[in-house]
Amino acid sequence: MFNLDKPKQIVKAALTFLGLDGQLSLEPSANFQNNRTSSGKTVTVDAALQLSTVWACVRFVSETASTLPLKLYEETADGGRVIAKNHPLYNVLCKTPNYEMTQSRFLQFVIASILLWGNAYVEKKWNITGKRIIALDPLLPQHMRVSRNKANGKLEYRYTIDGVTRLIDEKDMMHIRGFGVDGVMGVFTIDKGRETFGTAMAAEQTAGKFFENGLQTSGFLSTDQKIDDLKRKKLEGYLSRFMGSSSSAKAMVLEQGMTYQGITMNPEAAQMLQTRAFEVEEICRWFRVYPYMIGHMDKSSSWASSAEAQDVQILKYTFRPLLVNFEQEISRCLINPAENDRIYAQFNVEGLLRADSVTRSNYYNSSLNNGWMSRNEVRAKENLPPIEGGDTYTVQSALMPLEKVGTNYSDNGSGNDEQAQPNADSTLR
With contact defined as beta carbons under 8 Å apart, do 178 and 115 qualify? Predict the structure, then answer.
């Protein structure tokens, strides 16, 4: 039994009950020291990035997501929204997060950290008064160690660079988690998938050695004569001149009744090419990327029948979880709780859903004819300036304004009064 008069014991007991009383993660660099796989390869983030599939997946997701505009919005009284340009966080979040980065490069770094390390860490820099955020500095996740303080239950962030460790308070940290099993820390992707990545690395090395030998497999020399150590060493030196891709066309002269017997094997028989293709799909599963998006053009790689449907797939299953997670972390960590009900951040995904000209034209015609979009709203989507009178909502009945539906409407000579009942003035014309 613990003493209720001691607050520290109460906190410790509560954390133990919740399963939050211990260290949450190991330092990533230490976690990789004994990361040897069954294939014999030691998998690290740098080694994994040397695989073309890992490089392509991380680059595709991070670069594409970084092109989506991130804006800060304020909800209006009528239920609409406006861009909150006057908010102190707008310039930091939507233009230049820090002195060295644009918004695009900032987002690219953060998302790449989530994909590879499972976690992204952004330190908040405050002004002199400590009331306004003036910069967002992303930190290298491989140098971060996270633990929970057993006395007060807060997370502690220890960041080590060049042997110097500094403790960052939880209130000064924006911690963006990827997929995790405890809700507090994201899972280290490269660590959990080390067997998949290790096998792919071994397959790449095998293919490289195969071509280094000039597409020649191993074999052996046979003779009925006894060969001493001196002759054997001399023979091995002689054979080394005919090994490698640069010597694949050279002819070798055998002496003393020797015959060469090669072990016949080709890439197809060894299933090298099939193995490498399968590893592409395996790695894509870890990053939730469709293989065709990184150039793996297999006929079974996608079940979407059109480019537009494929874009919707990518948005729903690859980008949407990342973007929503990012948006909610901004609301939790950067926006004052008193403003959360009216100030929020959101990515603009219209660019990923932009269809061809014919499809967009049909969509706009439907919206205009049914009165749920105005002409100026359509023009805004096409990056065109507004026009006078373009804010009027119309319906299909001769493009009649909504407020005139069911009335004796005349457009006063505009030519759109075919279905309107004539009024007193119109009968005089």
Answer: yes
Amino acid identity at 107: L
Q: In 10 A of CB 221, how many CB atoms? A: 14
As beta bridge partners, residue 138 has 122
Residues 341, 242, single domain; the answer is no
Q: What residues form DSSP beta bridges with 220?
A: 261
Give the span between the Cα atoms of 201 and 194, in whole angstroms. 10
Rg (CA), the chain: 33
Q: In which domain, by residue range, is 242 found?
A: 218-262
Q: Taking the C-alpha atoms of 142, 145, 146 and 147 in order, what is their torsion angle to the nearest 10 degrees?
A: 160
In Å, how far are 12, 31, 166, 331, 356 from 155, measured between CA atoms?
A: 14, 20, 14, 19, 49
Residue 425 lies in a domain: no
Buried b (16+ CB within 10 A) or exposed e, 341-355: eebbbbbebeebeee
Looking at the fold, whether 198 and 306 belong to one and the same domain comes out as yes
Q: What is the token pair recorded at 143?
A: 């140098």
3 and 144, same structural domain? Answer: yes
Number of structural domains (the chain) is 3
151 falls within a domain: yes
Neighbours of 228 (CB within 10 A): 8
Same domain, 340 and 233: no
Quickly tell me which residue has 């759109």 as its tokens.
416
**How many degrees, rounded to 5, is the angle at CA 99 between CA 96 and CA 102?**
35
CB-facing half-sphere around the CA of 28: CA atoms within 13 A: 25
C-alpha distances (whole Å) from 172 to each of 25, 105, 121 are: 19, 21, 10
Residues 250 and 112 placed together within one structural domain of the fold: no
pLDDT along the chain (429 residues), means of 10: 53 50 46 64 85 90 90 85 89 91 93 92 90 92 88 87 90 90 85 84 74 55 64 66 50 58 52 71 86 70 60 83 92 89 87 67 82 84 80 76 70 51 43
Domain-embedded: residue 426: no
Kindly report the pTM of this predicted structure.
0.70
Helix, strand or coil, per DSSP, at residue 137: strand
> In this structure, what are the phi and psi dihedrals at residue 219, rounded to the nearest 5 degrees?
-160, -170
